[in-house]
Write a structure and sequence with these properties.
The chain is an alpha+beta fold and about 400 residues long. The protein has two domains: about 260 residues, 3-Layer(aba) Sandwich (Aminopeptidase), CATH 3.40.630; about 110 residues, Alpha-Beta Plaits, CATH 3.30.70. Helices cover about 30% and strands about 25% of the residues. It is built from nine helices and 19 strands. The chain has a six-stranded mixed sheet with strand order 1-2-6-3-7-18, sandwiched between helices. A four-stranded antiparallel sheet has the order 12-14-10-15. β4 and β5 form a beta hairpin. α3 packs across α9, α5 packs across α6 and α7 packs across α9. The radius of gyration is 24 Å and the shape is elongated. The two termini are about 20 Å apart.
Length: about 400
C-alpha cells in the first residue's frame, strides 16, 4: 500500500534507543503464534515516523506490512515477533521475559532471535529519515517492513500469506534484509545469501502384529525396515556445489510397539527430513526415496511435506551494500553462507527479490539464557542505517 509521506519531522533515535526498544519487545511473552502486542508496538513506532501500516491477519496470526514512500526501488526489512517457548524458567539466570542487562549482555527469550534485530531496524529507519529530512536529501525509493508472528511455528499464516497478498495486488520489492541471527563469532561475520530446501517424510512400514514366541504367525516391520533405512542413510544424494553443501538425509524419530515386550508390532513409523541443495529437485528426491523402498519389497505408506525450496541470492547490489556496510561499521569482512536451517527468506526469494539475512550472533538462540551483546545491537542498527544510505 503506497502513500505520500507526511511532512512531520521523524524522530531521531538517540544512543540507547535500540536497547530500550529491544527491552520493551522482549518483555512481551510472544510465544508463537501470538504476538501479544509486539506488532502493535512496532506499528505505532513506524506510524510515528510516517509509515503507512497495514495489519494483515490470517487465521489466528497477526502480521503487518508497512511502507514509507510510493516509488521504486523498495528496500524491505523482514522479521518475526514470535519466539519459541522458554523451557524450564528456573534454569534461566534471569527471568526469560525480564530483559535483564548484565555484563554488557541483554538476556531474554527473543533477544537474539529476533527482537534485537527488529529494534535495530526501527531505530535505523528513525535516524535515516530524520537525517534525510534535516538535509532535505530525497529518498531514492521506498522502505517497507514485513513482520509476522508465525515464523517459529508452522509458518502457514505468516510471511507466505503476506507475500501472496502483496503479489495479488502487484506490489513488489527489490531488496529484502531479514533480521535472522546470522552472525557466529562477531557481528556481521556471516550473512546468509540462501538456504537449503527442506522436505519432510512420514513413513509407515506395515507388518502383522503377533506374539514374539510365534514369529511365523506375524510379520515384523522393524526387521523389514532395517535394510531400506540403512540404504537411505548411506546413500550419497549429491555432492553439493560451490554454494551449497551436499544434500543430507536425517531420521528424527522412529517408533513401534505396544509397550509390551512380548508383542511384535504391526507397524513401524519413521519421520525423516532432507535438507537439499540446488543439485536436486523435490521430485527427484521423492522418486529416488520411493525407488529404494520399492526395491526392498516392503508394504508401506509415505506422506511428504515440503517446507521450502532452496534459494540463492546471486552477487549484486544488495550483497555488495551489506558487505560494505558491515565493513564500514564493524571493521570486519563478512562471508556469504547458505548454512543452517530454513527461514522466511524461502517465501520471499521466489518473488524475485534479492534476499540477505543479517543479524546478531546466534550461539544462544532457542537456548536457556538466550542473550545478545548490547554493543552488537547498537552496531547492528548502524549497519542497517548504512545499508539504507547505500541503496536509497
Amino acid at each position: 500500500m503506497s502513500h505520500s509521506p507526511d511532512t512531520t519531522a521523524p524522530r531521531n533515535s538517540a544512543p540507547g534507543d535500540t536497547l530500550k526498544l529491544a527491552t520493551e519487545l522482549i518483555r512481551i511473552p510472544s510465544v508463537t503464534p501470538d504476538d501479544k502486542g509486539c506488532n502493535q508496538l512496532m506499528m505505532d513506532r513506524l506510524q510515528a515516523i510516517g509509515f503507512k501500516v497495514e495489519p494483515m491477519r490470517f487465521g489466528e496470526v497477526n502480521n503487518f506490512w508497512a511502507r514509507y514512500g510510493t516509488t521504486d526501488p523498495v528496500l524491505c526489512f523482514a522479521g518475526h515477533t514470535d519466539v519459541v517457548p522458554t523451557g524450564p524458567e528456573d534454569k534461566w539466570r534471569h527471568p526469560p521475559y525480564s530483559a535483564t542487562v548484565q555484563d554488557g549482555m541483554l538476556f531474554g527469550r527473543g533477544a537474539a532471535d529476533m527482537k534485537g534485530s527488529l529494534a535495530a531496524m526501527i531505530t535505523a529507519c528513525e535516524r535515516f529519515l530524520a537525517e534525510r529530512g534535516a538535509s532535505e536529501q530525497p529518498i531514492a525509493g521506498s522502505i517497507a517492513f514485513l513482520i509476522t508472528a508465525d515464523e517459529e511455528g508452522e509458518a502457514v499464516n505468516g510471511t507466505r500469506k503476506v507475500i501472496d497478498a502483496l503479489e495479488a495486488r502487484g506490489e513488489k520489492f527489490k531488496w529484502c534484509v531479514v533480521g535472522e541471527p546470522s552472525s557466529t563469532d562477531r557481528l556481521g561475520d556471516i550473512i546468509k545469501v540462501g538456504r537449503r530446501g527442506s522436505l519432510h517424510g512420514r513413513l509407515q512400514i506395515h507388518g502383522v502384529q503377533g506374539h514374539v514366541a510365534y514369529p511365523h504367525l506375524a510379520d515384523n516391520p522393524v526387521h523389514k525396515a532395517m535394510l531400506p533405512l540403512h540404504e537411505l542413510c548411506s546413500t550419497v544424494w549429491d555432492q553439493g556445489n560451490e554454494s551449497f553443501p551436499a544434500t543430507s538425509f536425517q531420521i528424527s524419530n522412529i517408533s513401534a510397539g505396544t509397550g509390551a515386550n512380548n508383542v511384535i508390532p504391526g507397524n513401524l513409523d519413521v519421520v525423516f527430513n532432507f535438507r537439499f541443495s540446488t543439485e536436486l529437485t523435490e521430485q527427484q528426491i521423492k522418486d529416488r526415496t520411493e525407488a529404494i523402498l520399492d526395491a526392498h519389497d516392503i508394504d508401506y505408506t509415505l506422506d511428504w511435506a515440503l517446507s521450502g525450496h532452496p534459494f540463492l541470492t546471486q552477487p549484486g547490489d544488495l550483497i555488495e551494500a551489506v558487505q560494505a556496510s558491515v565493513r564500514s561499521i564493524t571493521g570486519g569482512d563478512c562471508q556469504p553462507s547458505t548454512s543452517g536451517g530454513t527461514s522466511d527468506g524461502r517465501f520471499i526469494a521466489p518473488t524475485g527479490a534479492q534476499v540477505v539475512e543479517l543479524g546478531p550472533r546466534n550461539a544462544t538462540i532457542h537456548k536457556v539464557d538466550e542473550h545478545v551483546s548490547v554493543s552488537d545491537l547498537e552496531q547492528l542498527s548502524l549497519v542497517y542505517e548504512d545499508i539504507l544510505n547505500r541503496l536509497l
